[in-house]
Amino acid sequence: MDNVTALTVNDWLKSQIASEPYWFHRMELPGGLVTPGWNDPKVEKLPYFGLPDNMTGMRVLDIGHAEGFFSFEAERRGAAEVVAIENYPPMARKFQICRTAFGSRATSHLAGVYDISPKTFGTFDLVMFFGVLYHLRNPLLALEKVHAVCTGTLLMQTAMCENTGDQPMAEFHPFGVKSGPPDNPSYDPTCLWFPNPACCIGMLEHVGFKEVKRISPSAPVGGVFCAKAGLQAKGKPPVEETLPWS
């Protein structure tokens, strides 16, 4: 009976994966399944993004989770609770497919970075903010929101401009840029702000982060930064009795 059940679940997962027309991340799932994404985060991102090897007991926030690769990786490394947010419903749907495959306890919330606060989501030992900043109309406001919920460490990755000088600056693309896989590019109108490294560090320090530094300068995808919250404390879930929707 167990084999029959496993086969049924595997067939269901195959059908769900096939029903989605677009996958960003190529993810290896249990049962020999692989999502047909064009970007391999295990090779192109994970070695460079600074995740601690041991995340035991951490309360983790994954902002802009896409299909959930980093959420599930944090859980695999021992995170006690992973809260993930995504404002694009198709990605949230694919997260749930992968969550089922992994038997994960990570939770996905349909929300954006401007929605987070200690009152709504609590505070976190580690915040992962990968591939989001350059899509935002109001990046400084977003970083203020991130700092408000981070009581430990922030890991941030973003696309950047080619200027690597000491003067903080950013390119603004009012109508977006070409994006997507090299062999099938498309136009993405949400790619707006491309800061240089000095600007990333300056913005993070401006909103209150300390010990800001660029890590993995050889990363093949944009710039990666690590920062510490101004006030260090153990991450805590929100108080349910005072949640905005309670």
Shape: globular
Number of DSSP strands?
Answer: 13
Percent in strands: 15-25%
Class computed from helices, strands and strand pairing: alpha/beta
Helix % is: 25-40%
Secondary-structure map:
Blueprint: H1 2-19, E1 28-29, E2 33-34, H2 41-44, E3 59-63, H3 69-76, E4 81-86, H4 89-102, E5 107-110, H5 118-121, E6 124-130, H6 139-149, E7 150-158, E8 170-172, E9 177-179, E10 186-188, E11 193-195, H7 197-206, E12 210-215, E13 223-228
Parallel strand pairs: 3-4, 3-6, 4-5, 6-7
Antiparallel strand pairs: 1-2, 7-13, 8-11, 9-10, 12-13
Helix pairs in contact: 1-4
Describe this structure in words.
With 246 residues, this protein is of the alpha/beta class. The protein is 28% helix and 24% strand. It contains 7 helices and 13 strands. The strands form 4 sheets. Strands 5-4-3-6-7-13-12 form a 7-stranded mixed sheet, with helices on both faces. Strands 1-2 form a two-stranded antiparallel sheet. Helix 1 runs antiparallel to helix 4. The longest helix has 18 residues. The termini are far apart. The mean pLDDT is 93.
How would you summarize this macromolecular structure in one to three sentences?
By secondary structure, the protein is of the alpha/beta class. The chain contains seven helices and 13 strands.
What are the key terms here?
alpha/beta; two-stranded antiparallel sheet; 28% helix
